[in-house]
Amino acid sequence: MSILKKLFTAVKGGVNEVGEGIVDANAIRIFEQEIRDAQAALNEAKRSLTEVMAKEIQTSRAIKSLDEEIGKHETYAAQALDKDEETLALEIAGKIAEFEQEKSEQQQVLNTFSANVSKLKEQIKQAEKTIVENQRQLSMVKTTESVQKATMAVNDTMASGDSAMTSAKQSLERIKQRQMDRQDQLDAAQQLADESNDKSLNDKMRAAGIGEEAAKGADVLARIRAKQNK
Amino acid sequence: MELNELSLKLSQYETEGASFESFFINNVGQDVLQVIVDGNDELPIFVTRTEEQILCICYLFSEQEITAQKQAELNDTLLRLNVPMPLSAFAKIDNKYAIFGALSTNSTLEQLGHEIVTLSANSIDALDAISDYLTE
């Protein structure tokens, strides 16, 4: 059964208790050992593959040199026939037959090697797939385990803080309030900055005699007199 | 990146306008980094590391907080929201609903920072979006 399926069954069965191991630590260790064994077997298979491939190349080379020998001796035999050296030609032909015999033997060996190579390659591919798959499953188990541990650690922390007492809705309200406060502060700071900008501009304008003039004592007095005279 | 290294780096790191506080927890032989984004300590992000991945988890609410009779509907909604939600997915741990993201252990500080900021924003948005399903 795949780990995910096991987890699914466990979760469905209500493994809710914090710390309740879905897969026990021993099973994880066994699993890890299996992966290590598979990895070792894979390395072994890869080493065998290189050896077999080297032998395959050697055998092919031997066959090629036999082919050359056969070709060469066929020329010799033809030459002997040309010179009417019937006996010699026969002897050369015997040699060719020997080469061909050897070649057919080597060919069989080569076929075995080639078959071995493709078999090993297939095995290696299969083993690699299995290892990757096992590692994925192991990582799932370990993640589940570490999430459980993390949950325990988190629960411990939350139980000692206020957050355990607060509902999500209250939390949300607080956060929104904080965001609003922050925005208000930003707005206020901005307003303050704008105002001080205005002020310094006004100061400059006044110094240059532009805009509203500050009321002068003489003007005020003139205004009061004007009222009295009415 | 190791968690203690991440903790140190996060404290001096700012990204996407967010700042981080982080606390290293090791109560049960499992290292956990509690990260608080922008002072939102109501929704801390818990970061853990396994051989293969870095998990960032944020707990949203517990099963008991769901309005009666509405759990199936909520589950359906969460499944539908899973794909459109950037970088994060909904999950359930024990009786708590959570939102999480997983990263490669080779992730950089920038990638982790982005993940954490996104997760934090997603968790707030998600709570906001589904608050109708929750009781006070």
UniProtKB/TrEMBL annotation, chain A:
Coiled-coil residues: 28-55, 96-137
Protein name listed in UniProt: Phage-shock protein
Family, as annotated: Belongs to the PspA/Vipp/IM30 family.
UniProt KW keywords: Coiled coil
Record region (Disordered): 159-213
Superkingdom of origin organism: Bacteria
Positions with biased composition (Polar residues): 159-170
Basic and acidic residues composition-biased segments: 171-185, 196-206
InterPro entries, per the entry: PspA_VIPP1
Protein source organism: Pseudoalteromonas luteoviolacea
TrEMBL record, chain B:
InterPro entries: DUF2170
Identification of the protein by name: DUF2170 family protein
Species of origin: Pseudoalteromonas luteoviolacea
UniProt lineage: Bacteria, Pseudomonadati, Pseudomonadota, Gammaproteobacteria, Alteromonadales
